[in-house]
Design brief:
- With 389 residues, the protein is of the alpha/beta class.
- The chain folds into 2 domains: 208 residues, Vaccinia Virus protein VP39 (Rossmann fold, 3-Layer(aba) Sandwich); 151 residues, no CATH class.
- The protein is built from 12 helices and 18 strands.
- The strands form 6 sheets. It has a 7-stranded mixed sheet, sandwiched between helices.
- Strand 2, helix 2 and strand 3 form a beta-alpha-beta unit.
- Helix 4 packs parallel to helix 6.
- The longest helix is centred in the middle third of the chain and has 13 residues.
């Protein structure tokens, strides 16, 4: 079997599904478990740190882990960085068969920090054929520590930071990745997209980054209007969502209070641009502690709530919703946020709207997950599948 720790709503599981694989996931959050179940992914609601590894020993082919990132993320308090020496100590001890988690946890500033060491307990006991792990970029030094131990156990290992936009995800989300295998040599997955694709000597060329507008069917410069029907999008192309889903999406846009602030003069990678900001991939976003939705673009970090406007922009209350005068401020729905993570538009997120946004923001983009697992297993991604959405 393939075992997944800290499943969340099912980003890795959706990536596995693209490859014809399935896993069993462990997750403690009720709303995320309900989402994964609704999507057809086998999930156990439990505390990964407390669950025994014995039921999985000798039966696990692959191990996947995305420990909670709130303690490490730049959108949070980042106490994980303060706790980093304790986490490294826990990984070292677990890799040598010593469980010192209880005493180290008592010293942590953020109790979630030590969850980043939890996969080592499972790796030490299970010794799977292959491993895939994901976290925010600041966790990369920890992944390198994991890599040293895995190499000593006979694994081929690659660690580094990948940009989801380079794999067809319409978002410039960067993540620290670890890929390991006992049965094959591994390296980073080959990118399929690039910001400025160029032809190589063999006549091959990567695809351009997928823009927000392209992914969401907004047209070249603006969002769809209620007159858009299933007969075609704003630019005359195929309608990306069925009529019922489109109507629900538009209704949610009107009443929702989750906003994205973009900078017309800034590309997601920091370079300048003069065209519409939605003509580029979305900025990376995560779910912030307290249920706020955070969307980040270089020089622009905005918490999306129904009462706080982006810095430098005046807001006014109208009908109980925050309205923003800036043309660069747009509302996004759960469906749109999910598509920007490369989930399919009808993915069945469960729970309150806040919980749904948290799940989307914390999830691994399924398309990125598929490429990472493909690199670990050698299973190719179907050539006809350019996007998970």
């Amino acid at each position: 079997m393939i075992t997944e720790l800290f499943r969340g709503p099912g980003g890795w599981a959706e990536g596995l599904r693209l490859l014809g694989l399935a896993d069993i996931g462990l997750e403690w959050d009720t709303a995320a478990c309900r989402t994964a179940h609704a999507a057809g992914h086998l999930t156990m609601q439990t505390d990964v740190a407390q669950y025994p590894t014995a039921p999985f020993t000798g039966r696990t082919t692959g191990l996947i882990a995305s420990p909670p990132c709130q303690a490490w993320s730049r959108a949070g308090n980042r106490l994980g960085l303060t706790d980093q020496p304790l986490v490294h100590q826990a990984v070292h001890d677990l890799a040598h068969g010593r469980d010192t988690r209880s005493e180290l946890l008592a010293q942590c500033r953020d109790e979630r920090s030590l969850l980043a060491a939890e996969p080592m307990r499972w790796l030490y006991d299970l010794r799977p054929e292959w491993v895939c792990m994901e976290e925010v970029p600041d966790v990369l030094p920890l992944w390198k520590q994991y890599a040293l131990h895995l190499q000593q156990w006979g694994y081929s290992v690659w660690t580094g930071v990948l940009n989801a936009a380079d794999y067809g995800v319409p978002q410039t989300r960067q993540r620290a990745i670890l890929i390991a295998s006992r049965t094959r040599k591994v390296t980073a997955p080959d990118p399929t997209h690039a910001k400025a694709p160029e032809w190589d000597l063999f006549g091959d060329c990567l695809q351009p980054w997928v823009s927000m507008a392209e992914a969401l069917g907004w047209g070249a410069t603006d969002r769809p209007t209620p007159t858009v029907t299933a007969g075609g999008g704003k630019t005359g192309g195929a309608e990306p969502f069925p009529t019922q889903a489109r109507n629900a999406l538009l209704a949610a846009q009107k009443r929702g209070a989750w906003v994205l602030h973009t900078n017309r003069n800034q590309q997601p990678d920091g370079s300048r641009q003069t065209t519409d900001p939605h003509g580029a991939p979305a900025p990376a976003f995560t779910a912030k502690a307290g249920g706020q939705w955070v969307l980040k673009r270089p020089a622009t970090t905005v918490c999306a709530t129904n009462r706080i406007s982006p810095p430098g922009h005046r807001n006014r209350e109208a009908g109980g919703e925050s309205q923003f005068a800036s043309p660069d401020t747009v509302r996004i729905t759960v469906v749109e946020a999910a598509v920007l993570q490369s989930f399919r538009p009808d993915y069945p997120f469960q729970g309150t709207k806040t919980k749904q946004f948290e799940q989307v923001g914390n999830a691994v983009p399924p398309l990125l997950a598929a490429h990472v697992v493909s690199a670990a297993t050698g299973i190719p991604i179907p050539a006809t599948r350019d996007q998970a959405a």
